[in-house]
Design brief:
about 35% helix, globular, two-stranded parallel sheet, single chain, alpha+beta, 9 strands
């Protein structure tokens, strides 16, 4: 099994095939899809300055360099937010033929290795986050994978729920913000129980909000709500609504530390 990063291997044909055959098949909601040309720009053109993130696109499979013979097994898109030294895993998918082989874990660990390498000279990788659908707010018929099944996959990969009321800024002007997602975190060291620095979380959200067009996060009501939730979680009073979600889903919650 080969795993390559299209950021380092500018194979436009492979990018197009993965996008068409796997990305669109697994992420069917048009409001959550990003355009192929956006990925070409982020991966192959000059890097935009912060707060815009550095995008990576891992592809797993066999004979990936051969357009006639390649077999694509999985993909993982992730971003490095350079100011906060935090990563965001954005799209993970494994093809039916590649399931049951631990490929999701392999891709996740490789992404965290790359993020750690890139942050080695700036104090180290501080946190790795991802988003997942809240099963209470998403109809399974509207998703390629049941939100509960997706959460079970995330649990097996080591994810923990972040105890904040998370709101995703709008991905495109006019789309509106999403309040149907949960924020999760992955351990950087798989041998340590996952916790997240409250300061790193807020630094990441500040950068993430700005990257998606929220010019003044400190004045933003949704960001301020997350600030309060972080402060409460630090002193052992995580938000009750989030904890109710965690209990319903049997989802372990990440501790919030300084």
């Amino acid at each position: 099994m080969d795993i390559i990063d299209l950021r380092d291997n500018h194979d436009g044909d492979l990018l197009q095939q993965v996008y068409k055959d796997l990305y669109l098949a697994c992420f069917t909601d048009p409001d959550e899809q990003e355009d192929l040309e956006q990925y070409r720009e982020r991966l192959f053109d000059a890097q935009k300055p912060s707060p815009q993130p550095k995008t990576h696109f891992l592809v797993a499979g066999e004979r990936l360099s051969d357009p006639e013979m390649r077999a694509i097994s999985g993909m993982l898109i992730f971003e490095l937010y350079r100011e906060s030294s935090c990563g965001l895993l954005t799209y993970l998918a494994v093809a039916p033929a590649g399931r049951g082989r631990g490929l999701g874990r392999m891709l996740t660990r490789r992404a965290i290795e790359i993020l750690s390498e890139e942050c080695a000279e700036t104090g180290g990788l501080r946190a790795v986050f991802a988003e997942t659908h809240d099963p209470a707010l998403i109809d399974p018929a509207d998703d390629a994978m049941s939100p509960r099944d997706r959460i079970e996959v995330m649990k097996r990969l080591g994810a923990r729920l972040v105890p904040v009321r998370y709101v995703q800024p709008e991905l495109r002007p006019g789309d509106g913000r999403s309040r149907k997602l949960l924020l999760i975190t992955f351990p950087i060291d798989p041998h340590q129980p996952p916790s997240v620095s409250g300061r790193a979380l807020l630094d990441f959200m500040h950068e993430f909000y700005r990257a998606l067009g929220a010019a003044k996060p400190l004045e933003d009501a949704d960001y301020q709500t997350m600030q309060r939730d972080v402060a409460d979680a630090r002193v052992g009073r995580p938000n009750r609504n989030v904890m109710d979600v965690a209990r319903t889903l049997h989802f372990d919650v990440a501790g919030v530390v300084e």
